[in-house]
Design a protein that fits this description.
Blueprint (H helix, E strand, L loop, with lengths): L9 E5 L2 H15 L7 E5 L2 H6 L3 H13 L1 E4 L7 H6 L9 H9 L2 E6 L16 E5 L9 E5 L3 E8 L5 E9 L4 E5 L4 H18 L2 E6 L7 H24 L3 E5 H10 L4 E5 L1 H15 L5 E6 L5 E5 L5 H8 L9 H18 L2 H19 L2 E2 L1 H6 L6 E2 L2 H15 L1
Parallel strand pairs: 1-2, 1-3, 3-14, 5-12, 10-11, 10-12, 15-16
Antiparallel strand pairs: 4-5, 4-13, 6-9, 7-8, 13-14
The chain binds NADP nicotinamide-adenine-dinucleotide phosphate and magnesium ion (MG).
Magnesium ion binds next to helix 9.
């Protein structure tokens, strides 16, 4: 068989621990025998980040801007324990944070559904994708515990020196708490554009919700910016694609999500997204079956798994013991990136191969061959728990029958 050609590279970002092991297996067994893989490779393994003073992380983010598409393996975000374990020069920043700052993107998380593992919410038939605005609000706020009588004020000093001052609260001797938080027009607009682009890309409706009835300025501004961006740039494209932009109040949205059949994108303000993504992920089953893509407002894409480096399994692997780690989220990061590369370049063969690889992996699980995490969740009667590598080899067998 002739290998599929890839004239333009995608950015390959390697990572740490168990996911680094899975990364290589996916390439060796499932991609390189069929595709003349063309990647611009960056090693973000913690050792290499330390050696390069973390420059390699910045280089990889800039490469995504150059080529438009990247795929990233999970990486360790160092804490004090990791600094000791790897004898690091510094407690380097989260690579995902650095890449997100460069690409200014929004993260979309989508569950992978398979027969035999039913969502806790019975009506959900299709995936719900959550888009979380990952900037501002309570995550970049200033807070105070007010330890006695006094007052809190909101003061805006404009560049021309004029001042707006509002009394927030007067406290008695028992004091209280106060917080100042913000967001920026640029960030909200970028968030809106990423969401509208991704809805068009995946041909799904977009939902957005805030509490604008109570927060008549702060939340209302989010509602207005989304409406403006939609009217000026996306309305016609949505009509052509036969998809809808739907705005409602956050409490109404929560109720509708639970009654829905899924199959849409739910854009959330920062805090709502933090909380709701954990709820939705858990209700669908497992983080190991959740893919994640960072979409920039300029249309750059970075695909990854939603889970971490699966440290506990890696230590078992190092002891020479058999592991049963689920490769699905990492595999779907690869297929997502290959498909996007193929779509941008008009490379139908590559798109079709990536589709088949996804189908083969889902079909393998539905035939009853799965890793331990899914074995515990699945309702299939005839099912078998296999090792990390055996699962990938089984996907290969299923794939070969389809090619
Ligand atoms: P984790 O790697 O997601 O693993 C937590 C637990 O979830 C695992 O111990 C395992 O449970 C289960 N699990 C996760 N992925 C699985 C898979 N593919 N197959 C089977 N089970 C899976 O989270 P963590 O242990 O909190 O973090 C480990 C490291 O990852 C940290 O250094 C953190 O900084 C990093 N991290 C990176 C990213 C990223 O790069 N995007 C995201 C999160 C965390 P059992 O042990 O019960 O089997
Ligand atoms: Mg959370």
């Amino acid at each position: 068989m002739m290998k599929i050609k890839m004239p333009v590279p995608l950015v390959e970002i390697d990572g740490d621990e168990m996911t680094r092991i899975i990364w290589k297996m996916i390439k060796d067994y499932l991609i390189e025998p069929y595709v003349e893989l063309n990647t611009d490779y960056y090693d973000l393994g913690l050792t290499e980040r330390d050696v390069t003073d973390d420059n390699v992380t910045m280089q990889s983010a800039l490469a995504i801007k150059k080529y438009g598409v990247g795929v990233k393996c999970a990486t360790i975000t160092p804490n004090a324990q990791r600094v000791e374990e790897y004898n690091l020069k510094k407690m380097w920043k989260s690579p995902n944070g650095t890449i997100r700052e460069v690409l200014d993107g929004t993260v979309f998380r989508t569950p992978i559904l398979v027969k035999g593992i039913s969502p806790s919410v019975k009506t959900w038939k299709e995936p719900i994708t959550i888009a979380r605005h990952a900037f501002g609000d309570i995550y970049n706020a200033k807070e105070s515990v007010v330890d006695g009588a006094g007052k809190a004020e909101l003061v805006i000093t404009r560049a021309d020196g004029s001042v707006d001052k509002q009394l927030i609260a007067e406290f008695n001797e028992a004091g209280g708490v106060a917080r100042g938080m913000f967001n920026t027009t640029n960030s909200i607009e970028s968030f809106a554009k990423s969401c509208f682009n991704y809805a068009l890309d995946t041909k799904q409706d977009l939902w957005f919700a805030t509490k604008d009835t109570i927060s008549k300025k702060y939340h209302h501004r989010f509602k207005d910016i989304f409406a403006e961006v939609f009217e000026t740039t996306y309305k016609d494209q949505f009509e052509k694609a036969d998809i809808e932009y739907f705005y409602t109040l956050i409490d109404d949205a929560v109720a509708r999500v639970i009654r829905s059949t899924g199959g849409f994108i739910w854009a959330c303000m920062n805090y709502d997204g933090d909380v709701m993504s954990d709820m939705v992920a858990t209700a669908y089953g497992s983080l190991a079956m959740m893919t994640s893509v960072l979409v920039s407002p300029q249309g750059y894409y970075e695909y990854e798994a939603a889970h971490g480096t699966v440290t506990r399994h890696y230590y078992k692997h190092l002891e020479g013991k058999e592991t049963s780690t689920n490769c699905m989220a990492t595999l779907f990061a690869w297929t997502g990136a290959l498909k996007k590369r193929g779509e941008i370049d008009g490379n139908e063969e590559l798109v079709s191969f990536a589709d088949k690889l996804e189908t083969a992996s889902i079909s393998t699980i539905e035939q009853g061959v799965m890793t331990g995490d899914l074995y515990m969740l699945s309702e299939l009667e005839n099912r078998e728990k296999v090792s990390t590598e055996a699962f990938i080899k089984q996907i290969k067998l299923t794939l070969e029958k389809m090619l």
